[in-house]
Amino acid sequence: MIYLDNSATTRPFDSVIETMARCMRETYFNASAAYRPAVEVERAIRACRQAIAAQVGAQEEEVYFTSGGTESDNLAILGVASLLRQPANFVCSAIEHPAVLETIRRVESMGHEVRVMPINRFGVVDLEACASLIDEHTALVSCMQVSNETGAIQPVEQIARLARAKNKNVRVHVDGVQGFMRVPMQMERMGVDLYSLSGHKIHGPKGIGALVVKKGVRLAPQMTGGGQEKNLRSGTYDSPAILGLHQAVLEMGQRRAEIDRLRAMKARLWSQLAKAEGVRLNGLPVDDPCSAPHVLSVSFEGVRGEVMRNALEGAGILVSTGSACASHKQKVSATLRAMGLSTEQADGTIRISLGMMNTMEEMDEAAAQMIALHKQLQAFRRR
Ligand SMILES: Cc1ncc(COP(=O)(O)O)c(C=O)c1O
Predict the structure, then answer these.
(1) Domain span(s) for CATH 3.40.640.10 in the chain
(2) CB-based contacts of 83: which residues, under 8 Å, 6+ apart?
(3) Which fold would CATH assign to domain 14-254?
(4) What pTM did the predictor assign?
(5) In testing the pocket of ligand 1, which one of 77, 148, 180 has its CB within 8 Å of the most ligand atoms?
(6) Which of ligand 1's atoms lies nearest the C-alpha of 323?
(7) How many CA atoms lie within 13 A of 211 on its CB side?
(8) If we measure between CA atoms, which residue out of 171, 165, 23, 2 comes closest to residue 91?
(9) Fold category of 2-9+257-382 in CATH
(10) With a 6 A CB cut-off, is 97 part of the ligand 1 pocket?
(11) Residue range 77-101, pLDDT digits in tens
């Protein structure tokens, strides 16, 4: 099997699985308990906080563990909205993941206004339009770091700068689920107040993530209870998952040089697909510095994405038609439509996403299969 759906989730590193199994077997203590073995678990949790903080230019006290990207996005947005005493406006891009978009819709139903930043034909937020949407009543601007559908790296630093020039009290949230550890993030320098990340996109466990909250940014908790995370988030620490996440961060860090290998694999795959007729790359050129190293959106003329995906599955290659969370809804991608693709082009799109376990040989094999299947399916369609 060739697994090319790493933006949906990644296979955990063996070292992650071993770390988690060891934790469940040997150090299963509640990290909040007072005895020594529990204190050691607490120490290990702290080491994970430090590792995450070091990756994003933050302090360890600024890292709050959550159940993943979705919860982090909810906590950032609702955490800001719940503290507002007067109607305000919330700005987000047109291509946010449902974890942001649906949450922003909830904020709208709380009486606040939602303003949507358009994107250009490459799937990148239009900065001029962004500037015109932000004003002194903007409470939060939320923009993803990397598009889960096209891999376009968003200009979050410029957005943060524009936002603060218009309103010094604005909060800037970045959904970094597809960017964390594959695209650099320095919160302090880039002016980011809130950063969401998730374990299972970096070969770590599912169901664990973090929201990094810069000091001085106030949020209302959305889950109350024992107050484990300095009262911002409650619940017994999922220590196996946190230790697994730590291991994933460590191994991704050790293999940082391989991010260039991801980029080279993506370029190789596209260079082969580009030779075939009727195959279109959506978004930025693969060698553009704003194209993330691991995501590729490709349309096959005359063949529906679903049909292509199923045929590829038959050949042992797993890809998705859009983002995994939206694909079961069978809707045409709003991102691709916003980039100006026709319904037919958007409908004929598959997303290919790479991870640290893919190889160059797999790129050659996948490209050959895609080209052959495209030809076969097109011929079938004409009959
Ligand atoms: C950009 C983005 N944000 C948020 C999420 C949700 O993250 P999680 O699966 O950890 O809840 C995803 C998952 O695909 C994503 O791609």
Answers:
(1) 14-254
(2) 218, 219, 220
(3) Aspartate Aminotransferase; domain 2 (3.40.640)
(4) 0.96
(5) 148
(6) 14
(7) 28
(8) 171
(9) Aspartate Aminotransferase, domain 1 (3.90.1150)
(10) yes
(11) 999 999 999 999 999 999 999 999 9
